[in-house]
Every structure is written in C-alpha cells, then in structure tokens.
Amino acid sequence: MQRVALLLTLLLPLTALAGAQKYEPLSASVQAALSRAISDQAPPKSSFLDSMEAIDWLTEMSRRLEKRIADRESRLEFLRAVHYEATRAGLDPQLVLGLIQVESGFKKYAVSSAGARGFMQVMPFWIRIIGRHDDNLFHLRTNLRYGCTILRHYLDIEQGDLYRALGRYNGSLGQAEYPNLVRGAWHNQWVYSSSRVASR
C-alpha cells in the first residue's frame, strides 16, 4: 500500500500538476522586457555572497536532493544553476526548488499533457513570445531562465502576491491546490537557514 502511495506521489507532478501557463497578450514593452530578461549571458562564477555561503547551501541542498538526482556533479550543476537563475530573477532559490518538485519531480525531460517542458514545465509558446526560435526548453539553464523569468513576471503582475502568481504560473489561478502544494514543498522540504546565521 505504501509503495502504491509513493508511486502515485512520484507520478503526480507529471500528470495532474504540471505547468500549463496560459497565453495572455503582452504589451510590446513587457514583451521586450521579458525578452531582455531571458537573453542568455554566461553566468558569473557564483551567485552566492561568499564561498562559505556557497559551500553551506550547496552541501545542504545536495544532501536533500540526493535521492532525486543521484549523480553528484549533475546535482551540483543543477543547484548552482537554480541558485543563479532564482537570485537573478529576485526569487528565493528554495521556493524555486519547491516549484520544481511539484511541477516535474526534478525530471529534466518531463512533458505535461498540455505540452509544458522540463524542470520548471515551461510552455513552448513562451519561446515564440519572448525567446529565440531555437531555444531548447530541455536545456538546464534555458529552462530555469524562462521559468524564473515567468514567475517573476507573474509576481510583478500580482504585486507580490505569491498565491496568485503561482496560480498564474500553473494555469490554475483562483484554485488553492497548486499554490498550497508549492508552498508546502518549499516550507517542508527546502527551507534553509545558514548554520552560521543560526549560531549567532
């Protein structure tokens, strides 16, 4: 019985909750701003404030993610990219990890029934609207860049209301299930405070 429940939990993000952002017409200025935000530039060496913060965060998040992404180097590359793209978009990296957990179950090549792709389940119409025709939504940094930029856009539209922004992100605005699942994953699995801060 427990195995069946576990299996359903693992499959659920790919079937019932995967992203289906809805196309909404954008003004030319918003379209241009979003296009600039996703334009690909090589990231700096680190998005962390200092090397100790990087070591602490990567060590802890890697430990938590180990059962989902087995290969250590792939896991660290993923975590560095999440931290960079989330920070770049003004998002909490742990929130983004919670969203990815619910959207794709950390499956790089996840495709929803609506056609959303990758870790953050980005709908392909975003490429046409704000990207370049050859952008690959299964590419790690591209998927995270789009997903974080889109969530930031929805947060801006909703004046910082995370509940409504998450609803827009999933295409379920006004329904509690998805925002509550993301917030639950974020707070129960990914909340992090530095041991250096906690010991002060």
From TrEMBL:
Superkingdom of the source species: Bacteria
UniProt keyword Magnesium, yes or no: no
Ranges for domain Transglycosylase SLT: 84-175
Keywords: Signal
CDD domains according to UniProt: LT-like
Signal peptide interval: 1-18
Sequence similarity: Belongs to the transglycosylase Slt family.
The name this protein goes by in its record: Lytic transglycosylase domain-containing protein
Protein's organism: Candidatus Propionivibrio dominans
